[in-house]
Amino acid sequence: MSAQAGTAIIGGGIVGLCVALGLAARGHEVLVLDGRDGDMRASQGNFGLVWLQGKGAGYAPYARWSFQAVQAWPDFAKRLSGLVDVDLALCQQGGYEFFTDAAEYEAFGHDLHRQANALDDRLSFELLNHADLAARLPGIGQRVVGASFCPLDGHVNPLRLHFALRQACLASGVRITGGASVVSVRPAGAGFALLDETGRQTRASRVVLCAGLGAAHLGPQLEFRAPIRAQRGELMITERVADRLPFLSSTIRQVDEGGLQIGGTKAETDCDTETTTTMVGLAQHAVAVWPRLADLRVLRSWAALRVMTPDGYPIYQRSADHPGAFLVTCHSGVTLAPLHATRLAEWIDGDPAAPDLEAFDERRFALS
Amino acid sequence: MSADLVIIGAGPAGMAAARVAAEGGLSVTLLDEQERAGGQIYRNVGAVAGRGWLGADYARGGALVQGLDHPGITHQPRATVWRIDARRGVIWSRDGQSHVSPAAHVLIATGAQERPVPFPGWTLPGLMPAGAAQILMKQSGMVPDEAILSGAGPLLYLVAAQMIAAGAPPVALVETPTAITHALPKLPRALFGLPTLIKGLGLIARIRAAGIPWYRGAADFRAETTEDGRIRFDFTTGKQSHSLTCGLLLTHLGVIPQSHLTRSMGLAHEYDAEQGAWRPTLDPWGQSSEPHVFVAGDGGGIGGAEAARAKGALAALAILHQAGKLDAAGRDRRAAPLRRALSRALSLRPFLDAAYSVPSAFLAPPDETIVCRCEEVTAGSIRKAACTGAEGLRLMRTSLRTGMGPCQGRMCETAVIGLIAEATDRPASTLGPGRIRTPVKPVTLAEIAALGPQPEETT
Amino acid sequence: MNAASRFRDAPGAAPRSLRLMLDGVPVLARPGESVAAALLAHSGGATRQTPVTGAGRAPYCMMGVCFDCLVTIDGHPNVQACMVSAREGMVIQRQIGARRLGDQP
């Protein structure tokens, strides 16, 4: 059985669906090949942060790209709600990073100043010591030595974002297949031939690899280096709470339904099972930051695998050997969603107005 | 404190295993959620006097409870296991405090739960599973007042007979279609199952003698609350519609293994097509895909109390051998009579599974039915999502939040799978089981935090 | 709604000698029974309102699997009533919607 498409996108996660939406809006015929229900899916294990502070402190292009993304989110949310009736619960009221270690707090302060420089001081942020923090957030735990606050930070409901993107794609004429992973992709004729694990073949003029960790074995088939690795993040989800938590932080957030999520760990492993040590650490962190969370019940833990490049910044790569093949990978697919659905499509099309994404070329790793 | 063997669940399997293991020289910790040992089938048997109306089978559980009085067995009641950590051991909670029990071997004997029976109105006060009424009879000396029993299966007849004996007969028995004639070829050729069959017929005779209205082939269940808080129960039998009122509507459509703990450990599971449920994949001793983890009793596949006792003892023998306390010859010699008992106990199972297989309407109920009770997601929403791409449990869960409430899908997974199967024309066996994460029962942040070294201790 | 209890006592059942409070109203329980059983003996009405739609629920499975019997006991919200033994002096409140966060501990 075979199918034809103008552009085939491998991967139906948030990244792949955003790219699909962007290309469809530019008039292209798009087919998204999504994997199996049980596949590793970073789109289903993340916090939904729309986050700026700290991003690209050591790499100005990423700081700028993240800044543009955060600014573009409100219009993007409007565009999606114009296409589908889903409440994304986008909230951009600012976010905190809390610190229980004075050295880490100080180091992050330096990072923020560097980031601000990279953004020509368009980044506003505050550094708060415990006393200032306690005045602003009276429930803050004694062990929090300081915090940074950035008014541009926010969050969105990531599961509903994924669902909305999917519905928006379908409403825009994108075809989506699922239930089987693509196992091979190769140049064929003027385009590409893709084969999935059931033997189904697809031909496409262009192919965009948005397969998350799948890029590790699919990328080399198109001669991409795709130097990505898995990094586990664990989190815990609590019972619903009627009160509104008076803050958003990168490690503690309240979902719009009312439950709290506690997370933000990083472990260099490709195993997506939760661990006792991390669960204990997360619980201790939560209770240290906001002691009145102590008697909240955890309903379940979760773990998912981030898709990490060596420097942690995205890869946007046009294939030199196979024109028409593209690699897109990042670990902040939620924050960057608006740009993936607009500017990246311009870049894939080679539009003169497209952004210059040289800084995210994978050849930057050639010397490492 | 470390033990050679931690057993989770003090039902017939767990109790039988504890005794065999302790007599064999192992130190055994027996963790159980309830205040008293007995599991569900022998619930509260240790405390009950003068409840002969519950039947002779129930009373036999008393001996198993007494068997726990052995120096090698530490029974921890009111212990809720929420995670099994391969390195650290079994993590459990009681009175707001969690404990870690390291164990060289683990036996999971957490038994069964009733198969959820979703239909419009099943979430209303006044509707309960038949097993819940049985628990109230056993533990609280309460009997249903003006109840209707609905569904099918041996437990339904047992509860009816127990209610009759307690002077509170059901006002009607509304039985869903059974396939008894179809199942007849599955009766054991030898008459091992005869005593049980006779007992079953005895129950049926008692129900008939009590003159209880008995409807057969019932379908299209629907419940509503009346103005005075009673239940109006509508159903059809063939082309006829019925509307009955009662104080309590009890339903039952069989039991399924509780597999949250085994799934949370990543053990291999398989689909049992006859029972319509997933169970862990086990060898003949009950060993799971993890060499030091065993499963016994209904949690490994429905078989009833006598089968559970035998399986518990068999698992204990295998664990004794694994622990070097019993050589293979001794293990096999002692296993022989247990295997015969197990075979007898299971002889009726193929017949029962076939005779009381679940009508498909309860696996894929009408659109207005609330399927996920915790998140209040209807069958109609699930069908729609399945038709627009949510073709698996995980995608359905992230689309509609089914299974994200505190019960972790225990009440809804069966029907969610049934609805996806119907919408995508795929068999249920390809759609599960869902992945389960710990804690398998809710536990507070403070309790989890207290399990690690406290921050002050690390400085 | 204060529907009458849907249960009555079995022959030979022990007297209900423990006094509990349910939303300010006295409720009796017998030693050894769960809070859920005592609530069911007391009345047939809802013992909680769901956080999603406010629908009325009452204890269902009686064995800790369904989480429909959640109540607040002695100030602790979202406790499964079927898993807790009734004790003299317990203060029970129906669980109305999602719980609130406690005050600073």
From TrEMBL, chain A:
<dbReference type="Pfam" id="PF01266">
    <property type="entry name" value="DAO"/>
</dbReference>
<dbReference type="GO" id="GO:0016491">
    <property type="term" value="F:oxidoreductase activity"/>
</dbReference>
<protein>
    <submittedName>
        <fullName>FAD-binding oxidoreductase</fullName>
    </submittedName>
</protein>
<dbReference type="InterPro" id="IPR036188">
    <property type="entry name" value="FAD/NAD-bd_sf"/>
</dbReference>
<dbReference type="InterPro" id="IPR006076">
    <property type="entry name" value="FAD-dep_OxRdtase"/>
</dbReference>
<keyword id="KW-0560">Oxidoreductase</keyword>
<dbReference type="GO" id="GO:0005737">
    <property type="term" value="C:cytoplasm"/>
</dbReference>
<feature type="domain" description="FAD dependent oxidoreductase">
    <location>
        <begin position="8"/>
        <end position="347"/>
    </location>
</feature>
Automatic annotation (TrEMBL), chain C:
<dbReference type="GO" id="GO:0016491">
    <property type="term" value="F:oxidoreductase activity"/>
</dbReference>
<dbReference type="GO" id="GO:0051536">
    <property type="term" value="F:iron-sulfur cluster binding"/>
</dbReference>
<dbReference type="InterPro" id="IPR042204">
    <property type="entry name" value="2Fe-2S-bd_N"/>
</dbReference>
<keyword id="KW-0560">Oxidoreductase</keyword>
<dbReference type="InterPro" id="IPR036010">
    <property type="entry name" value="2Fe-2S_ferredoxin-like_sf"/>
</dbReference>
<protein>
    <submittedName>
        <fullName>2Fe-2S iron-sulfur cluster protein</fullName>
    </submittedName>
</protein>
<dbReference type="Pfam" id="PF13510">
    <property type="entry name" value="Fer2_4"/>
</dbReference>
